[in-house]
Amino acid sequence: MTGDTDPHGGPAPSAEGDTSTRVAVATMYRLTAGHRSAIAAATTLTLVGSALGLAQPLVAKHVVDASARGQVIWPLLGALGALFVVEAVTGATGRFILERMGEGVVRQLRHGLVARLLRLEMREYDRHRGGDLISRVTADTTLLREVVSQALVDLVTGSLVAAGAIVLMAWLDPLLLLLVAVTVAAAAVVVASLLTGIRGASAHMQDSVGAVAADLERALGALPMVRVHRAEEREAAGIGARVDAAYGAGVRAAKLASVMSSAVELAVQGSFLIVLVVGGLRVSGHTGSLGDLVAFLLYASYLALPLSSVFRAVGLIQRGMGAYQRIDGALRLPVEPTTPQVRAGHASTPWPAGPPVTRAQPVLALHDIHFGYDPERPVLRGVSFAVPRRRQVALVGRSGAGKSTVFALVARFYEPTAGTLLFNGRPATELTRDASRRGIAVVAQDTHVVHGTLRDNIAYGVPDATDAEIRRVVELARLEEVVDRLPGGLAAVIGEHGGNLSGGERQRVALARALLARPSLLLLDEPTSHLDAINEAALTTVMKDVAQECALLVIAHRLSTVQHADHIVLLQDGRTSAGGTHEQLLARSALYRELAASQMLRPGGEPGIRDRGGTDG
């Protein structure tokens, strides 16, 4: 998928480069697909209410004329009151239907955005900031709700009601209508000249709000670092600059909207004064009746509301287009494909039930893999190795050698630019990414622990896991002490980002989560980096036990981890430099001896230079 569809199933409209009101209205109308019956009902009710409102000046005219002739006016006053009540009821009902429809459109957009953002290609997360993408789901859709729930119907009904009022005013006094038309046309010229500026200012404001969200999310996500480096004021100043940019854009949009509103207001008031003066002179000169003047004045004042709603709707639609372009941009971002790149010759899935092509086939094999996050800067330049069934393979090398990139390719966050990646003997291109990941579990160096209970975190990948299954992985990951310590045990809430746990405890939670899925291949990124010597020894034992159930691929820096691997792969400058056991590599590879003797691999100690997960190339 390349993002060329909207959440309603058709091609997503793109308004890039076209700022006309016609295109903007068509785009906003398209968003209401699936809610057209609600729009029709609301429009009908609004028009009925407006027709009742248009009838009121005529009834008022008859009341004035009948009173001047000394006739009974109580029935006419009763009819006038009934018109007011029915108009209020129909108007309120129509407005409720519109508001509900607007909420439905926003819900649909948010569902589409959330589903899209969770399935984007990993490259897109490198190019776009998370807070800005979140802002498109929240702030931008909220602005669109007002547009689709009010502006579209106001534009249609306001135009029809204004047309009806103009027809009746022409019937009452064409000369006075001509004077009103001149003042309204002047206001329309002013409004048209401001619409493009309002749209641009609104888009700039929405972009700035998204930047505020992105910067604030970054700062809060690294709050301990911010506090330790006393960077609160610097971060506040940086985010404050984004806030000021949003403020400036909002003020500019408000200034243009104020000028537009004043132009409309002056046109309405000016036309009313012209009608009052000219019409009064004509009544005093006996060229018109007082009832006609009262009716015309009521229509002139009544015309103000639909005209104001039309101008306001046009301005709001242009503002909404700024938000829509950001939403449309997010909906067009490419997502991970849901079909294999190459159709397989057989349909069986490899994870976890599908067997390897032969017993001798390794769980994972890489053949001459090449890859670069930037095509001009390759990270992997020919990596080849295999992970046999129920064996532990360790990846070692200097920081930047490509170890974490290998993990990213195995998890199919990215696709190799050349070479072959095999799962159980089957090319990855024959499998969907979901099928490839079905038998893989990952324990990252920077563990992900989300707000919720300890049980929620452990059972994240297997939400229907039984208590016995959870107890098994708790014991395997040596989490019994943590469960006993936390109030509530497995039901304890562990805080945002696992703030109630130490780094080593978070890593063991991630290990328990991975083991619960019973993967065929377990990827461990420096599993002992946050563990003390006692827990490191315990984890080493766990890894031996796990290797009896599944294959392990481990990024390792500690010598103690490497020594227990069945096979070690040495990466150098994105290439497979050497492979073998610890003793074999000590004898064969000068680089491995250097790593073992340096701080890269230190027996029983803390790791020195470490890969930065996901940025080693």
Task: Give an overview of the whole structure.
This protein is an alpha/beta fold. Helix content is 59%, strand content 9%. It is built from 19 helices and 10 strands. The chain is elongated. Residues 364-598 form the ABC transporter domain. It is found in: Cell membrane.
List the helices and strands and how they pair.
Layout: H1 21-30, H2 36-68, H3 74-117, H4 122-127, H5 130-172, H6 174-221, H7 223-228, H8 232-284, H9 290-331, E1 364-371, E2 380-387, E3 392-396, H10 403-410, E4 418-423, E5 426-427, H11 433-437, E6 440-443, H12 454-458, H13 467-476, H14 480-485, H15 503-516, E7 521-525, H16 533-546, E8 551-555, H17 559-563, E9 567-572, E10 575-580, H18 582-588, H19 590-597
Parallel strand pairs: 3-8, 3-9, 6-7, 7-8
Antiparallel strand pairs: 1-2, 1-4, 4-5, 9-10
Helix pairs in contact: 1-9, 2-3, 2-5, 2-9, 3-5, 5-6, 5-9, 6-8, 6-9, 8-9, 13-15, 18-19
